[in-house]
Records
---
Amino acid sequence: MSLYAKELEIAQLAVQRAAILTKRVFHEKAKGTVSKDDKSPVTIGDFGAQALIIAALKHNFPEDEIVAEEEAAQLQEDANLRSTIWDLVKGTSLSDASAEAVLGGAIKSEDDMLTFIDYGNSKGGAKGRIWAIDPIDGTKGFLRGGQYAVCLALMVDGDVKVGVLGCPNLPIDDAAPLSGSMESGQTDEGKGCLFSGVLGQGATSRPLTTGALASSQKISMKAIADIAAASFCESVEAGHSSHGDQAEIAKKLGITNPSVRMDSQAKYASIARGAGDIYLRLPVSATYQEKIWDHAAGDLIVREAGGAVTDIHGKRLDFSIGRTLANNKGVVAAPAGGHAQVLAVVQEVLGNK
Ligand SMILES: Nc1ncnc2c1ncn2[C@@H]1O[C@H](COP(=O)(O)O)[C@@H](O)[C@H]1OP(=O)(O)O
Ligand SMILES: [Mg+2]
Ligand SMILES: [Mg+2]
Ligand SMILES: [Mg+2]
């Protein structure tokens, strides 16, 4: 058995199960949205997916630590919200009985659900096995009917070893071109992709299913022959990554393709399979610290697909110092052969500010 084979299987099945829940919420009008202290939205889908993933991890790897985005505090004060989430969680299982059994089956009670959610409170760090979970990455995209991702990664001694991204609204077809409008229609037809990477073992994609894992194929980034023909992925939210700086960088590189805007780590997945070429996250605020769960899986999947990922200073993303990427600013992800050229222009443009 190859290194991390069990961790990979559990992570993929856990993401698949959580995505069944998020898809149900995605198609409902009422998404149980509440506002967090930082004013960002969180939904019943985020809480439910986090509970299901952590239950699967605790069943299989009880000693491991977990860094997850959400916490149960808000649910302690709101019995209605709590019971809506519990209804969702207890009604969600994989359609394949043996796969469901591998994850440990259903959560037993509403209280257990809250306990699982709060197991995600690890401080992170440079020692031991730590999972990073973003149950719904791109919650604003999820609410808007656009792209979002269910994200899970395993770090060992501060280094990401396994990364899994479930992207329910990306086309199954790795060769499907990035569409200028990544908004999702009403049906799930032709959509739903599960991306994985294991350090030193490459990156894959497979259709996201509701039961056992589908068969996978290797993915790789497109080599950049002519940078002027490249296409960019960027955030939809101008508050997450500067659209103005991005446009200036594109211009200097001679890129005329309009950049494709989509939410979440679906951007990392899209460039990893060659559907796009370059992903830049250009700091808007001097104080915002990126969170490890927003990058751990995507960073590994892109690097395993033949890419290079650094921050705007050219440093590798450092997942070893806690819940945030406090040592890094922004993200520059590109095919390994073109990364230096892109980084140089990023620094030229940002250096002038
Ligand atoms: N001010 C901010 N700057 C950068 N990223 C942010 C900011 N606020 C929230 N985020 C996080 O950015 C990610 C989505 O950004 P994008 O889709 O633009 O790449 C999400 O993880 C979102 O959290 P969340 O997981 O709560 O959606
Ligand atoms: Mg959030
Ligand atoms: Mg996120
Ligand atoms: Mg999130």
---
Amino acid sequence: MTFLEFVLLLLVLYYVIYVVLWIVLDCNVALWYKSRFGVSLSTMRGQVVWITGASSGIGRALAVSLARHGVRLVLSARRQEQLEQVQDECLQVARGLLAQKDVLILPMDMLQLDKHQSALYSVLNHFERLDVLVNNAGRSQRANWTDIEIQVDRELFELDVFAVVHLSRLVVRYFLEQNGGRGHIAATSSIAGFSPVPFSATYCAAKHALNAYLMALKTELRKLDVTIFAPGPIATDFLLEAFTGAQGGKVGQSTANQKRLTAERCGELFAVALANKMDLTWCGLFPVNLMAYCARNATLTKILGQYMTEKTLNKIREGKL
Ligand SMILES: NC(=O)c1ccc[n+]([C@@H]2O[C@H](COP(=O)([O-])OP(=O)(O)OC[C@H]3O[C@@H](n4cnc5c(N)ncnc54)[C@H](O)[C@@H]3O)[C@@H](O)[C@H]2O)c1
């Protein structure tokens, strides 16, 4: 065998192994590797992590994963009662690593931008520090592109983009002015944030915009850690509250019996991404993971676009394939 043939063989082997990993793993290879051999979550013990949208789904699962390792938490969402339940769950799994004062409940509506500053003061008064902000609160969408009212585009962007950017700016200023420029901003984006899917045009655009805002932040402030965590379909109740195309509309559907990654697994992987300060990671069951890889590669995206019909894409994201 010539040297060239040997190199080609290695290249083919490399791709074969990678494709197999894309099929069997439920997240990107780097995240899977960090979950096994990366920095342990216990290195975050004592840090203060503020999670928005912590009352249910991914936010709740992330809070529980972090609490297990003694990470101090600020839990924000609109519903106090649900936040109290998450607080109880966190204290239970922490098994003595956390006391009640270590899990602060801070109810807030992300859309009330004028309350963001006082919410940040409350966090700092309570803990005297903040290490990580996780922008997780958000709503999805199901609607035909042509039917979406412009008010819906605006409302979705208000919550999924502008509220996140506003709160993040305040926290980044705190990092710059009182923390030597060090700190960590994270957000729950979506695979739809780099690989558009049908019937969620505003949502796809919002998550793309969010990614761009955060990537731009990282280019300006290199000392800052920025994590974009992009899940595929996850088994949460997010479709109950998801936007439609009509103003005031909600999809009101359950995701029960759909093929989706569990919120618990998603929360664990998100926690690993934070502990390892990863910049862009994603998770999802086959074929979502494979699609995410293709979307990151322009040539593969073109090929995928030619063979995936809108029906197939929709089946995948609705957990029916
Ligand atoms: N479930 C999925 O398949 C999936 C996939 C990719 C990305 N995501 C993203 O994950 C994040 C969490 O969604 P989820 O699936 O856990 O759904 P969820 O509905 O269980 O959680 C959404 C959270 O955001 C909060 N929230 C909504 N509007 C708010 C407001 N105005 N102010 C404060 N909090 C508000 C809710 O109370 C809840 O705590 C969202 O940003 C969503 O876009 C979800």
